[in-house]
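Give me the fold.
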Amino acid sequence: MAIKRDAALALEEYNKVYKPLYDAFIANPNMSPDELEARFRGMNLERTREMMRHNELFVGSIAEAIKATNELVISAVKTARDVHGARFEAVVDLGAGFGHDLHVLHENFDDKIRYIGGDTSMYGVALGNRAYVGHIGMHPFDYYEASGYAIIPDDVPCLVMTHHSIEQIPDYMPVFKNLLKSKSVVEVVHMEPFGENSDWAEKYDYNRNMMAILTEAHDSGAVEVLDVERRVFGVNPENPTSIVWWRPR
């Protein structure tokens, strides 16, 4: 039977991960960020598995996968800043989980930048605010609720990012429209499986129309698609991360 993905299913899936992760952190608050991320993936740091980088398969440890993913996030934001010239005073991560990517950015960028995350799971939000207290702020956020986009500050220029969270939204159009309404957004970077012609995306009802919508909006002059990199890295080779950067015109 085909999966029909909606907000309730996504929340159920994430709470199954984030509640035990939150409980584990409460029991052992000295866990490192990498240990938290490994537990999030349901694996220990030493375990190896097949992964993919630019369509080349290789075997690596989960520790190597976390390092590569961290570097991907850092590089994507540096591209926005250094290549595209985006000037921002806040980074907003939508569907941020427990804020691991924001923590990584805080460790590698100007500490004057505000790091704001939103997630639908109360356990992810609570964990992020406990584990990374003082340098990121996590808030309740639901892609399907227009009011949730108020977590994007309107008083400073913002870079909005997503990382394997748009994949949970079968139709990108409502997300796109809400992002366009946020006048403080100077650039958006999606680190997502594009889902086009993907058996995996079809099987799990992951997003498959984001790139089509962005391409049409670019062609119409509504936005500028700045760069696209496909199949950059995948802990799961069937569902690898691609990257698209865009900004409103």
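The longest helix spans residues 62-83.
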